[in-house]
Every structure is written in structure tokens, then in C-alpha cells.
Amino acid sequence: MNIVKTTNGSVLSIALEGRLDTTTAPRLEAELKTSLNGITELEMDFSGLEYISSAGLRVLLAAQKVMNKQGSMIIRNVNETIMEVFEITGFADILRIE
């Protein structure tokens, strides 16, 4: 998985490419832990994301909990396969998806 992050003031944008699974989720989790301090808006671009597993969902849920306290989180460009996972797991109701 490839992680491309851009910070603009208190806005952090993260673009993910590839698969967010058991192997790659710890990398995203570590990135978020070190990057969310002082961030009020987290934007995640999933246009290059092909697959998400339960490990990836756990990382998104943890990020959402942090951002609920300090600002907002939005996920953009979700493909049909990942949107289906979000709907089946109930994450579509928890996450802000555009």
C-alpha cells in the first residue's frame, strides 16, 4: 500500500493506494498516530484503494474517534467494493463519506 500525505495548516489529506489489510493497516495506524496532533480536518482519498479488511476498518474507526474530539474526518472517492464493505459493516452510518 502507498500512503501519500499532505498537510495544509490544520488540514491533513491522506491518499491511499493498494490494499488496506492486516499487513498494511499497522503502517497507516502509525502514520495517523504521529500526524493527527493539531489537525482539525482529516481528509482521506480512497480513489486508489482497491481493498479494505477488518484490520483497515479498525484503523479508520480509531481515526474517527480521535477526529470526533478534535475536528472532523471525511472519506472521498470510495469505490463500489469498499462502499459495500462500509454498508454491510455499518461503517457507512459512522463515517462521513462523499
Please write out the topology.
Elements: E1 2-8, E2 11-20, H1 25-35, E3 41-52, H2 54-70, E4 72-76, H3 80-89, H4 91-94
Parallel strand pairs: 2-3, 3-4
Antiparallel strand pairs: 1-2
Helix pairs in contact: 1-2
What does this structure look like?
This protein has about 100 residues and is of the alpha/beta class. The protein has one domain: STAS domain (Transcription Regulator spoIIAA). It is about 45% helix and about 35% strand. The chain has four helices and four strands. It has a four-stranded mixed beta sheet with strand order 1-2-3-4. Helix 1 packs parallel to helix 2.
Identify the notable features of this structure and list them briefly.
single chain, 98 residues, alpha/beta, Transcription Regulator spoIIAA, four-stranded mixed sheet, globular
What would you give as the CATH superfamily?
A: STAS domain
Backbone structural class: alpha/beta
Order of helices and strands: EEHEHEHH
Number of domains: 1
Distance between the termini: 22 Å
The CATH architecture: 2-Layer Sandwich
Number of strands: 4
Q: For the report, how would you describe the main beta sheet?
A: 4 strands, mixed
Rg for CA atoms: 12 Å
Short description:
The chain has 98 residues and is of the alpha/beta class. The chain has helices spanning 25-35, 54-70, 80-89, 91-94; strands spanning 2-8, 11-20, 41-52, 72-76.
